[in-house]
Amino acid sequence: MTEIVPLAASRDDTLWAVMARIGRINRVAEIYPNRAAALADREWREAQVKAHANFLRNSTQPPPHYSVAPVRRTDLPKGWKPLPALGFLRGQFI
């Protein structure tokens, strides 16, 4: 017997995002299909920030704070790309 799946359920585009915040600016750092993978990435990013604490202090870059939140694929900005672990390149939070 074939299972009938409602159309809304078949188009569920919810993903889990690792969010990077510096000050009042929030960016989607990375996206994952499940929460466990997003939590693992958040922990890795936090470890990278701790490992590079001296570098961040010397470069006057504020350290990013990471969180995990659900996000829909349609809510991602056009041209979105993953952020590096420390949240910035060439001195700019991207």
Descriptive account of the structure:
There is one protein chain. The chain has 94 residues and is an alpha+beta fold. It has a domain at 14-76. The chain contains three helices and five strands, in the order αββααβββ. The chain has helices at 7-10, 35-51, 53-58; strands spanning 14-22, 25-32, 65-72, 88-89, 92-93. The strands form two sheets. The chain has a three-stranded antiparallel beta sheet, covered by helices on one side. Strands 4-5 form a two-stranded antiparallel ribbon. Strand 1 (14-22) and strand 2 (25-32) form a beta hairpin.
Spatial shape: globular
State the helical fraction. Answer: 25-40%
How many helices? The count is 3
Element-level helix/strand string: HEEHHEEE
Give a quick set of tags describing it.
94 residues, alpha+beta, 3-stranded antiparallel β-sheet, disordered N terminus
Write the layout of secondary structure elements.
Blueprint: H1 7-10, E1 14-22, E2 25-32, H2 35-51, H3 53-58, E3 65-72, E4 88-89, E5 92-93
Antiparallel strand pairs: 1-2, 1-3, 4-5
Give a quick summary of the entry.
Helix content is 29%, strand content 31%. The protein has helices at 7-10, 35-51, 53-58; strands spanning 14-22, 25-32, 65-72, 88-89, 92-93. The longest helix has 17 residues, at 35-51.
